[in-house]
């Protein structure tokens, strides 16, 4: 007997870590002998690969992957998944390569293991980025094979069961990640049995004292409550049997973390949580669920507004059940859940409930199809933004609070609580979101930023020429909407950067009495190649983003004859019209408007920021004169510009409304107003207004100064920065 067989034979089965014998016993109950032998072979291979490695708890490392496989065997998953679970750390922690796994155990196993493997070989800026990138890789691997996340969840669950070996700091970090990501992910995939245990273990590790206090309080209250609930269950069984309904009636207890979250959210003590215990009724089919509901409501009156039909409208993870809250004895609220046996299996095991143990022609279960639809959206999400942004987008999509709304055709869409009309538009289709201009709720026009409510019928009005508004990023909540808007802005930013870069280069070339049209194409191509860029557009983009300096590039592009002679005149300032796009920004410390004397600073990655010459923040940039650009307003600016006015007024009733009315009388829009009370006699009102130019602003100032309650007025100049 070799080392692996000896080690596996000695592995004891404990509460936290089952041994190989336990695993094979479960597997043998539903898989054929040849597949059981594959699992045994994988265990021996893994033991050999992990030889000499130990866990923090002191046991041989192979005990961990065997225990993870045993968790998945409890969900009755196929042999490939169990083999991958046993080998899920061999690529990361041993010299074994993916190709060796594929040759011995098949491509499917190798792909699952690779999807779970962390990216330790890549150097990241920080631990958070490494975790986010690892999570991104794992989720994208899930798009190809859902079993990747099943292995990862089993791995995390066993780590949580044996977390005592970790340091306190590490234990808290892992617990926080479990509660933030993995438990919601298990719920999103309908794996409630895993989700509940992950939450309770995470709660115990993150807040051990709170866990102990709450657990002790529940234990004290459990005896009387269980006896009381048992009598109600007997009443329900008798009533259902009397009407000829064959049903299993059981009691359920709300798990610890759910109770804690409800106490925290509602800021109430344990005594005020009334749905700690409830009833679960399992019947043969969906029709009987509704018949049983009538019987239940006949025994105890239902509480208004507390009925939910998840059979007609399932949750996004496939969960189906009827939920109703009853007025029990002494008006004590009791929640009852009514479902079929199939619904109950899905509620516990989610996507694993209908897993295909053998390849066949059958279509995938609805729960798996829903999960794959969600996962396929991750591909589009990950194309825009950093790994951390991707992780945050996924985190926002994981939490289950949903609103259910209808399209005009009657299709039901599920969106997160707080979702807006724009989120709805993108949920229908990315093109609908990109071209939406208005929304109708129940045939009435509604602002795009309005939040959705259950039961609404929403229609999106589109226009072929419409494009996403950058301000939508301030209120959309779904990951799909955020990713699509970000992707559009990324493309728009590039085109803006290219155009700005061309203008900056033309300005710099004017020193040599040249323009880009005069530059020799061969010389431009050589410069692009020497700088390691793919084409001239990339060069212009880098200039527009401030990553390359236009004067230095102009010297490289100008022919030698031009370099030797001095310019007869200085290059003309860059004309600012207000329509340059995302790469020309107007400083919010001084709010420049047409007519002001201005200058501009070039920042890498941000483009140009325009300041007033007298702005005190300009002094911070004087040390880098090479980044200053000569700019001037164009003759006809083509937009409105923001400006901020600080108005000191005498305190009296209605003064804010009076000043606002005076500003509105000059045909000026107020974007923002803030009241800063200084003392009992005077206050400072800060108005951000939209003006055409300096003359328009001067007219507003004259009107305000004539008001009797106005004591002092000035334009904001580097008082604060609100970028």
Spans of at least 5 consecutive residues whose pLDDT stays below 50 are 119-125, 354-364, 563-569, 719-723
User: How widely separated are the two ends?
Assistant: 70 Å
Query: Quick one: biggest sheet?
Result: 5 strands, mixed
Question: Could you tell me the strand content as a percent range?
Answer: 15-25%
| CATH class bucket of the domain at 3-208 | Mainly Alpha
Summarize this entry quickly.
Among the domains are: 3-208, Hypothetical protein af1432; 215-352, 2-Layer Sandwich (Beta Polymerase, domain 2); 641-715, ACT domain (Alpha-Beta Plaits), CATH 3.30.70.260. Helix content is 47%, strand content 15%.
Give a quick set of tags describing it.
single chain; 723 residues; alpha+beta; Hypothetical protein af1432; Beta Polymerase, domain 2; Alpha-Beta Plaits; 5-stranded mixed sheet; 4-stranded mixed sheet; 27 helices; 20 strands; disordered C terminus
Q: Can you tell me about this structure?
A:
The strands form 6 sheets. This protein has a 5-stranded mixed beta sheet with strand order 1-2-5-4-3. Strands 12-14-13-15 form a 4-stranded mixed beta sheet, with no helix packed on it. It has 27 helices and 20 strands. The chain is globular, with a radius of gyration of 33 Å. With 723 residues, it is an alpha+beta fold. Strand 13 and strand 14 form a beta hairpin.
Task: Record the SSE blueprint.
Blueprint: H1 3-10, H2 20-27, H3 33-49, H4 63-74, H5 79-86, H6 90-93, H7 98-105, H8 107-116, H9 127-144, H10 147-161, H11 168-188, H12 192-206, H13 208-242, E1 248-253, H14 256-266, E2 277-283, H15 286-299, E3 308-309, E4 322-327, E5 333-340, H16 341-349, H17 366-382, H18 387-398, E6 402-406, E7 412-416, H19 421-428, H20 430-434, E8 436-441, E9 444-446, E10 458-462, H21 479-509, H22 521-530, H23 536-544, H24 550-557, H25 560-564, E11 574-576, E12 584-586, E13 598-603, E14 607-612, E15 628-629, E16 631-633, E17 641-650, H26 655-664, E18 669-677, E19 682-691, H27 694-705, E20 710-715
Parallel strand pairs: 2-5, 11-16, 12-14
Antiparallel strand pairs: 1-2, 3-4, 4-5, 6-7, 8-9, 8-10, 13-14, 13-15, 17-19, 17-20, 18-19
